[in-house]
Amino acid sequence: MHKIFRRIGLVSSFAAEDHKHIFSLEELKSACQQAGFRIIEARTFKLGFNQFVVCEKP
């Protein structure tokens, strides 16, 4: 998607080249839980292209 957005000017070429792997929200939540964190909030923003996860260590 970044390559398409770069072509139409929605993101910079640096942003498109900088993303090697894009994690889904479920992947991020799983990684946090496996590391022993409790998820307080997890959501997407900017039309679902970005993720926000707040965790705490119990």
Task: Please state the average pLDDT score.
Answer: 82
Principal-axes geometry comes out as elongated
For the largest beta sheet, what order do the strands appear in spatially?
Answer: 1-2
Number of strands: 2
Characterize the largest beta sheet: strand count, sense, and whether it forms a barrel. Answer: 2 strands, antiparallel
Report the portion of residues in β strands. 25-35%
Radius of gyration from the CA trace?
Answer: 14 Å
Low-pLDDT stretches are none
Description:
The chain has a domain at 22-58. With 58 residues, the chain is of the alpha+beta class. The chain starts with a helix and ends with a strand. It has helices at residues 2-7, 13-18, 25-34, and strands spanning 38-45, 50-56. A two-stranded antiparallel ribbon has the order 1-2.
